[in-house]
């Protein structure tokens, strides 16, 4: 079926359901899908929209699985959450297994004491990890509010155990002035995560050894090459990038930060962006008065699994296929951690 026919059928279904249907589209969705969303944005913005929309009966989340899980956790009893492709997962989210996390937590609190550590979980994690954080006095964060979540946590306890993205955690710690030797990496397959009791006691931030395949593709050499080619350009990257890439860039921030950075740039500016390619492609098409270029073409294959055909199929089978349901035993603690984030 041609793209325009697919779009027409999707728009017809949207019109039929009216406010009973809400389509949420993440910034990393391909252009045609993103344009059909009722709300578009980063995971924080979309979580907030999902929590506030009382009228919607059906929420279709065009993103990856952990995002749809979070929307379901925050949803109301009459709402059904679907995702166009159940296989749209997140390798980084899978890097933090609940059994490994609980084992690591037990080792840390045995050394430092239970009331010394706050678990903080990035949105890019399974519902089981969010539940764990909620049950242990912790909070969820996204790349747009990690500093606020860290500040919230430090007011309560002296340490943070951050899951699962080491780079976002380290870049946030750097931004807050935490010394490098007070941020340690936890490798779950090693005793004490590869650390000593002394280093654990000394640490302010313990970083789970997870990472994003999309953002670790960016290297300092990419920056040097682009700066040589475009000496007057500005380079903005996502904080999931390694710290040396963030340090060499002109700015770093969430997808919403990047969008705003481009919006506010002067006409004729050259802006080079280090994040998922679909967002860069859309910004380049939208801001033709500026030169918008990728630092390197890095694509999230899981976000890319969602297309117009799968979105249409979800809408034609509304409330019946690819329904996301988080068990109540997990939902309770996860909602506590998500609500703490939304209250920041």
The portion of residues assigned to helices is: 40-55%
SSE order, one letter for each helix or strand: HEHEHEHEHHEHEHEHEHEHEHEHEHEHH
User: Architecture of the largest domain in CATH?
Assistant: 3-Layer(aba) Sandwich
Average per-residue pLDDT, rounded, comes to 96
Our count of helices gives: 16
CATH topological fold name of the largest domain: Rossmann fold
Largest beta sheet: strand ordering: 6-5-7-9-8
CATH homologous superfamily annotation of the largest domain: NadA-like
Distance between the termini: 45 Å
Shape: globular
Using only C-alpha atoms, the radius of gyration works out to 20 Å
Q: Please report which band the strand proportion falls in: under 5%, 5-15%, 15-25%, 25-35%, 35-45% or over 45%.
A: 15-25%
Question: What is the β-strand count?
Answer: 13
Q: List low-confidence stretches.
A: none
CATH class categorisation of the largest domain? Alpha Beta
Write down the domain tally. 3
Structure characterization notes:
The chain has 344 residues and is an alpha/beta fold. The protein has 16 helices and 13 strands. The chain has a 5-stranded parallel β-sheet, sandwiched between helices. The mean pLDDT is 96.
Overview features:
Rossmann fold; alpha/beta; 3 domains; 44% helix; globular; single chain; 5-stranded parallel β-sheet; 344 residues; 4-stranded parallel β-sheet
Brief description of this entry?
By secondary structure, this protein is an alpha/beta fold. It is 44% helix and 16% strand.
